[in-house]
Structures are given as structure tokens and as C-alpha cells.
């Protein structure tokens, strides 16, 4: 058993939100009634590099993404923004606050943007939507949803929502002004952007997306044209016209095909048959990173359908004439994984080695036109400090004393006395894997004594963290295999502790195994483990607590706790069975460390064992076994005749096989192992 409509007239006002969320000096409010058989206007797909046409970052949210099935229109429709009338010189609101209209900033497919100045002289950007473009209830609901979502957000790297109001012909969304253009305009001027600068950009973007996702908000239209520079040259994400709040639940998804062609994730193109979730924003981060470093999006083409076909096949390349670092390519390739579950989560992105390169402390205004000098001379120590400070400024942190739900509640309570969407914005987080295995002692609770002594001193890391680090090292070695071995630091290569015998009885008790140290363990169905040490009167319990993580307790076989007696009988049952019926995988080894089985996975090709010391053992169906150890730096082969050889993985990758006994399809097996570990690292 395996483990695991009636259109508005020009003088008809928009129906206000409850609690005065939209305000105007208009008393006669007429509800919008949709006409029968009315089809909402199908918007044209944008085919430009980014789709943004605004000359200033103040025009947050006025670009025109698609909100329809991805098919070309026979006849190009007029932009809805052309229906927007120029606001009067003074726009009056119901609250008595008046705004003076300033210069025209630009337009997109749905709205126009103007400067607005209040009585104190402070300048804002006003996204202006024509009421004549709001043709039915669905369109109105989308506008009100954008207002509700954006109004509920407060983050250093998100365009600040100021106010919303209306007059007879327009709805106005008042936003903070970002006068230093967008990333799209920077790229058009610069053609390509340096890696140190893009590192800084990515941290600020990741901080904002982490904040959105913690409130279950999907942006769904992340692109260079929707990310703006404020007066201090900090990045701000804007345009929440396609944003949506994902309902709580383990399999909540959205099914609307929407976005901008060059940035759409492959699962979005699957529509109602597939659905999409937070991973679409992760994909867009990869597109933006590629575009900044290379100069254009990876799937760009003149024909939108060609773009879609390339996206579905992840058909792109890194131009030889535009070199970027191997670490940058690695991150981009993972961000643009075809399978959404293989993409790094928002928390895992900043763990990539690429962020260990030169890292500036801020973005300079000169960056709008040219590459600042001295970026490559930033020291490693200073880069680490700048990286840490930038993460803190972007609100990126790892909670140590609170669980994520508590932090969410306190954040919302302190920021928003009255949250517009309390049920949607403070639900339980579905990413339970971050609490899968917490480091021992991380929660500060003292109810259980942690009994790791000098013999059992290894702090147990989270499974996905071990998988991620091992996968990264294996990829790095694969890239480095053409370098000279004598210039590389090679790991020590002693034979690892291995699983020599196993019995899968998970349909009743659990999974039993015998190590080549003769220690016997059972991974019970409740995820707890008992390990009976060979030639010892001691046994170990590895117990998982939801809040405390993993606790290792040493007990005496002579006086075991009452609750352990039944489990010890099961261990003895399995020990007798394996000793009588199963042959060993390898010869006995002395115990160098105490090792438990953390997790196992069975497929048609192999069985995969994940151990507490970070080792991965793969038993293939042709009876050859391979173990990856030293965090992915060392590899061990166990032949069907129990011959063991251990070498640095880089040596085997370079030679193509083991020197003593050749392994059938050696490199193919290593590729299977790397892919299996990657899937575990990024699995939901």
C-alpha cells in the first residue's frame, strides 16, 4: 500500500457602495439593470511587450489586460477609456473635500489617469473610469471589487489607496502618486538591467506579493507596466483591476482566463478545466525577471496565439549574446516551471543562491536612464546586510514565536480598524507545509523535554528545506561538471547509513525498516517513529507535535512507558519477519550516527527514502540502489551483489558512471533522483 444591460446614460450616476465607499453630490441613484441576452464587450488582447502605454507610474491600473477567452477578435473594439470624459477643473465630493484636476497622465484600455491636487496642495493620481463603460452588473461588480481589495491593502511596496468618489459621468479612484515611471519604461530606456539592480527589485516585489498572498489576494496582472517607482525610487505594485480574493479551502481556485498575453501562466490558459491559484503570480515574477535581465519577455511574438503555444510548451531560451549568471537562469527556470506545484513558493524564492550576489542598498534615480557604477564592487558582507535590510523593509520575515494565523490577525487589527473584507482577508493559510516540521525548540514551548544528547544532537530540519538544499547543490554540480576537479573542494566520502531491509505494512501498522547498523525502526501511520537500537537496552521515540515539531525521547527497554509497549511489540514482530524472510541490501556498518526514516515514496520505478540526516536513498526496480548524501555533494551506489562505492557526485557526473562497477543508465538514474527531490522540495 502506498504512502501518500442596460447601458448608463451620460448623466446617470453609479450606485454607491454601502457605508459610503463611493461618494458624490448626487441624490438620485438609479440601479443598473442588465438587458436580457446582453453579451459583455470582449476586450482585445494586447500584443505589445508589456501592454502598458502610460508615460508615468501615477497611472496605476489603467492598462488593459484581457478578461476573456484567449481568442483573436475579428474586429478591434474601441478602448473603453475613450468613453472617459475629461474631469471638470474642480471635482467635488460628498464629504466636502474638493480636488483640482491637474495634467493628463495617460490611459489604458479601461481608464484614464489625471493628476489631482487637494486643498493643501498635495498631489495624487486619479484613475478615472467612465460610467458609460460600466454596461452591466458584472462590470460594476468588478470595479467595486477592485476598490474593495485595493482599499484593504497597506504595504510599503503597494500603491497606496487614498479615496474614491464619483460625479455624474466618472468614477475616481485616488491613489498615491508615483512620479518616477514604471519598470516597463525603465526597461525601454535601458534595454537591459544589471543583476544587482534586479535583485533589489525582486525583493521588493516578492515582499508585496507575500503580503497579498497572506491575505489570499491574487493579483493576476503582474507585469513591468504595473510596477512603479515612488519619489524615493522604491517599487510599488498597482492596478488591482484583475485581482481576486481566493476563498479559504485546500483546493480553492479561480477559472477566469485573464491577464496580459506575455505574462499569462500556462494553467490560466487551461480555463475551467484546470483553474489557477497563487502560482500565477509566481510565474509572472519569473517573466519579469527574465524581461529585465534579457530585455524582453521570454515568450514574446507578434502573434498572440504563438505566445500562447510557446507558454504551453515553456518554449524559450537564454540568448548567447545576452549572458546572465547561472544562478539567475536557475531561478528563472524554476519560476517558469510548467507544473505550478514545481515552482518555488513566495517564501522559497529568496532562498536561491542568486540573491547571494552583489546587492545594493537602494535604487538610485540615475537607474532610470543608465546603470549606476560600482554595483559589482559591493562586498559580500555589505551585500548580505543590504539584502537583510531590504527584506525587512519589504515586510519579509520568518515568524519564530507566532504561527502565521496569529500574525495575520494582529497585522490586520493594527492596520485596519474596520476591514472591508474580514472573512476573505484573514482566513487560515493553505500552505501547511511550512509548519510540516519545525526546528526543535523553535516555538519556545517547554511542555515536552527534548532529549537530544550528544549522540542524537542533529536538529531536524524541515523536509522541504532539506530537499530544496539538496536539489540546488545537485543542479550546481551539474553545471560545474566541465570544470577541473583539482580546482574544486570535494566532500569526504565515507559510506552512509542505509536502509538494508523494509516491509510496507501501512495498511495496518506502518512502514518497518532495518538499517545496515541493525537498528530496527517503524514509521507508524500516525507519523511517529520508534527506533530500537542494536545491542542496546535503549530505544528512541521520534514524536511529532503539531506545534512543537519533532521531539526525540530516549527510553529504556526494561521500563518502557505504558503507551510504548504495544508499539515495541510491533517492532519486534517486524524484526523477526525481516530477519527470517529478507536478505540485506548491504553489509553491516558500525553506527556513526542515529538515523530515522522521515518519509518514503513508492513509484513504479523506485522507492525513495528520506532520512533524518538529510540523505536520500533510491532503490530502483533493477535492484541497483543509489544514495545521495552530504547535502547532494556525495553519491553512493549499492550493487545487487551488495558492493558499495561512494564518490563525490561531481566526479560521477564528469565521468558519466562509477569507476569500479558501472551502473546501468547511471546518468538517467541521477536525473530521476534530482527530479524526484525537486518535486518534494516544491510540493504543496
Automatic annotation (TrEMBL):
<dbReference type="GO" id="GO:0000776">
    <property type="term" value="C:kinetochore"/>
</dbReference>
<dbReference type="GO" id="GO:0005634">
    <property type="term" value="C:nucleus"/>
</dbReference>
<dbReference type="InterPro" id="IPR000719">
    <property type="entry name" value="Prot_kinase_dom"/>
</dbReference>
<feature type="domain" description="Protein kinase">
    <location>
        <begin position="99"/>
        <end position="355"/>
    </location>
</feature>
<dbReference type="GO" id="GO:0007052">
    <property type="term" value="P:mitotic spindle organization"/>
</dbReference>
<dbReference type="GO" id="GO:0005524">
    <property type="term" value="F:ATP binding"/>
</dbReference>
<dbReference type="GO" id="GO:0005737">
    <property type="term" value="C:cytoplasm"/>
</dbReference>
<feature type="binding site">
    <location>
        <position position="131"/>
    </location>
    <ligand>
        <name>ATP</name>
    </ligand>
</feature>
<dbReference type="InterPro" id="IPR011009">
    <property type="entry name" value="Kinase-like_dom_sf"/>
</dbReference>
<dbReference type="InterPro" id="IPR033701">
    <property type="entry name" value="POLO_box_1"/>
</dbReference>
<feature type="compositionally biased region" description="Polar residues">
    <location>
        <begin position="46"/>
        <end position="61"/>
    </location>
</feature>
<feature type="domain" description="POLO box">
    <location>
        <begin position="498"/>
        <end position="580"/>
    </location>
</feature>
<dbReference type="InterPro" id="IPR033695">
    <property type="entry name" value="POLO_box_2"/>
</dbReference>
<dbReference type="InterPro" id="IPR000959">
    <property type="entry name" value="POLO_box_dom"/>
</dbReference>
<keyword id="KW-0067">ATP-binding</keyword>
<dbReference type="GO" id="GO:0005816">
    <property type="term" value="C:spindle pole body"/>
</dbReference>
<keyword id="KW-0547">Nucleotide-binding</keyword>
<dbReference type="GO" id="GO:0030447">
    <property type="term" value="P:filamentous growth"/>
</dbReference>
<dbReference type="Pfam" id="PF00659">
    <property type="entry name" value="POLO_box"/>
</dbReference>
<dbReference type="Pfam" id="PF00069">
    <property type="entry name" value="Pkinase"/>
</dbReference>
<dbReference type="InterPro" id="IPR036947">
    <property type="entry name" value="POLO_box_dom_sf"/>
</dbReference>
<dbReference type="InterPro" id="IPR017441">
    <property type="entry name" value="Protein_kinase_ATP_BS"/>
</dbReference>
<keyword id="KW-0677">Repeat</keyword>
<feature type="region of interest" description="Disordered">
    <location>
        <begin position="46"/>
        <end position="82"/>
    </location>
</feature>
<keyword id="KW-0723">Serine/threonine-protein kinase</keyword>
<protein>
    <recommendedName>
        <fullName>Serine/threonine-protein kinase</fullName>
        <ecNumber>2.7.11.21</ecNumber>
    </recommendedName>
</protein>
<keyword id="KW-0808">Transferase</keyword>
<feature type="region of interest" description="Disordered">
    <location>
        <begin position="411"/>
        <end position="435"/>
    </location>
</feature>
<comment type="similarity">
    <text>Belongs to the protein kinase superfamily. Ser/Thr protein kinase family. CDC5/Polo subfamily.</text>
</comment>
<keyword id="KW-0418">Kinase</keyword>
<dbReference type="GO" id="GO:0000922">
    <property type="term" value="C:spindle pole"/>
</dbReference>
<dbReference type="InterPro" id="IPR008271">
    <property type="entry name" value="Ser/Thr_kinase_AS"/>
</dbReference>
<dbReference type="GO" id="GO:0004674">
    <property type="term" value="F:protein serine/threonine kinase activity"/>
</dbReference>
